Please model this.
Amino acid sequence: MLKIDGVTHWKAVRLFHERGVKIEELTYRAHGFFTGRELYFLDPSGNLLEVRDPTWKAGMATPALADIVGRPRRTARSTAASARRSSTGSSSSSTRR
Model:
């Protein structure tokens, strides 16, 4: 577990998102032995790691992951699919049969 402050926690969430690190869970723990804002992710070997901000307290803001990082991250695959749809004139609402 790595302990960081609130500003660094937000920066870490955004950096992980920008680098394509899948965030397993973002939680706000108000009760228990280890309270605070917690971010869980997997390392390349599959180990679950935690980054914790112990400065977060009950009653403070609890923004969702999407609110912290903004709009969903576009992957190269989704960008390529959008480009293909644009070039063929088809829309994302078309259905396959």
Observations:
- Helices lie at 6-18, 65-69, 76-88.
- Strands lie at 2-3, 23-29, 36-42, 48-53.
- The first strand starts at residue 2 and ends at 3.
- The chain has one domain: 2-87.
